[in-house]
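TICKET: design request
STATUS: open
ATTACHED STRUCTURE:
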């Protein structure tokens, strides 16, 4: 089995098994300024995964599935920057009110001047982008403050919710991925106590996800020579991201001995830096997809893969690009013997970078950091805290985690 598949199995992918029952972030001497609101399209529909940032502070978040965001800043900014692929970015001036903002984005049409894109240029552009990696990404090492969340749902009900402030050390781009480190600064988790939920999902690797899915630094994930021979690369319609024109390359898998990805790669036209990847595992061959997604399962359980989707964002700060957001989604069914209906599960993990330190930081080491096979619950205690996010940036959840945790607490009592 290819390396990238075994990496996913070890670090990302899920195991169906019995559930276990079970701070140096951004401290400030003065209250932080909180900005919250909703991002919509021109028709008023909420827009998920929109990038919202405060220029000059290196503070950023993404909107949730309902288009909602919350930012926390050390000082009151005069404006925020809002951007999404295929839409005109917006510089939104802030007034007296900083909450319940409604920000609308308009779709953008991209015209690439003086460039003729031929169908057979995709592989050439991709190769040029790979050769430019040493010039476009971190060459000194830096510490990223991140927000991390993982959730598991059984049908529509949450059976596992966890969230944390994490410190992600990204070693220089020419170092091996194993030189990167992740440590949890502050975290919490709750699991369902119901006996009917004792067969559930464990997400392997957890906060290590941005290390091993960093396709810029980890060539063994996706962009290695052995895997690339099984793909066709074709040019797709160009888009803009953060007011920067992007080449878009579509991945089309051929026949291979293991499951491959369909997807899109976004490459900055000027710098040739990778800016985004949208990948979906091909689950048309159930046996191959199962080998890629499943680590192990209890006897008597039939596993049916439905979806695996990965999103990776890189943000350009005017000088260099760095990883800014990673999301991994799994959907699958489990069918028990002697039951008429299969049970659907959804497991999701996401990490967004909310701050950057380029000097004067300590690299997470030893027991404070995650090892390759460590999962979230290996490092984070089982507890609750009503004032958990006091001084941290957050991604607004699709369903409030406070509400989800509250439901789990009620079922426990």
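STATUS: resolved
RESOLUTION: sequence designed for all positions
ATTACHED SEQUENCE:
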């Amino acid at each position: 089995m290819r390396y990238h598949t075994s990496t996913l199995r070890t670090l990302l992918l899920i195991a169906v098994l019995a559930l276990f029952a079970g701070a140096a972030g951004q401290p400030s001497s003065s209250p932080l300024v909180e900005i919250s609101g909703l991002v919509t399209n021109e028709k008023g529909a909420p827009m998920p995964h929109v990038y919202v940032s405060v220029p000059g502070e290196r503070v950023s978040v993404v909107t949730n599935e309902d288009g909602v965001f919350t930012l926390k800043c050390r000082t009151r900014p005069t404006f925020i920057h809002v951007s999404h692929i295929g839409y005109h970015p917006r510089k939104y001036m802030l007034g007296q009110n900083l909450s319940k903002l409604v920000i609308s984005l308009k779709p953008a049409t991209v015209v690439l001047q003086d460039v003729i894109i031929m169908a057979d240029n995709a592989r050439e552009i991709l190769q040029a982008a790979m050769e430019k990696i040493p010039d476009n990404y971190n060459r000194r090492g830096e510490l990223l403050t991140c927000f991390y969340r993982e959730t598991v749902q059984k049908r529509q009900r949450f059976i596992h919710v966890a969230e944390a402030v994490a410190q992600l050390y990204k070693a220089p781009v020419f170092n091996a991925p194993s030189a990167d480190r992740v440590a949890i600064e502050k975290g919490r988790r709750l699991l369902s106590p119901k006996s009917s939920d004792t067969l559930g999902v464990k997400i392997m690797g957890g906060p290590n996800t941005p290390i091993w899915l960093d396709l810029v630094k980890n060539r063994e994930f996706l962009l290695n020579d052995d895997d690339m021979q099984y793909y066709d690369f074709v040019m797709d319609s160009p888009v803009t991201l953060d007011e920067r024109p992007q080449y878009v390359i579509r991945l089309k898998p051929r026949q291979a001995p293991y499951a491959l990805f369909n997807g899109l790669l976004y490459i900055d036209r000027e710098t040739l830096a990778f800016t985004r990847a949208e990948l979906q595992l091909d689950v048309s061959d159930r046996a191959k997809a199962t080998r890629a997604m499943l680590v192990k399962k209890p006897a008597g359980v039939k596993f049916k893969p439905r979806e695996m989707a990965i999103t990776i964002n890189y943000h350009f700060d005017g000088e260099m690009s760095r990883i800014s957001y990673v999301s991994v989604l799994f959907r699958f069914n489990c069918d028990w013997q002697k039951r008429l209906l299969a049970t659907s599960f959804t497991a999701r993990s996401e990490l967004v970078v909310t701050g950057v330190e380029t000097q004067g930081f300590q690299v997470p080491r030893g027991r404070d950091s995650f090892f390759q096979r460590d999962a979230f619950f290996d490092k984070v205690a089982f507890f609750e805290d009503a004032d958990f996010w006091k001084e941290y940036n957050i991604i607004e959840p699709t369903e409030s985690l406070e509400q989800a945790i509250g439901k789990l607490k009620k079922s426990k009592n």
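CLOSING REMARK: The mean pLDDT is 78. The chain is about 10% helix and 40% strand.
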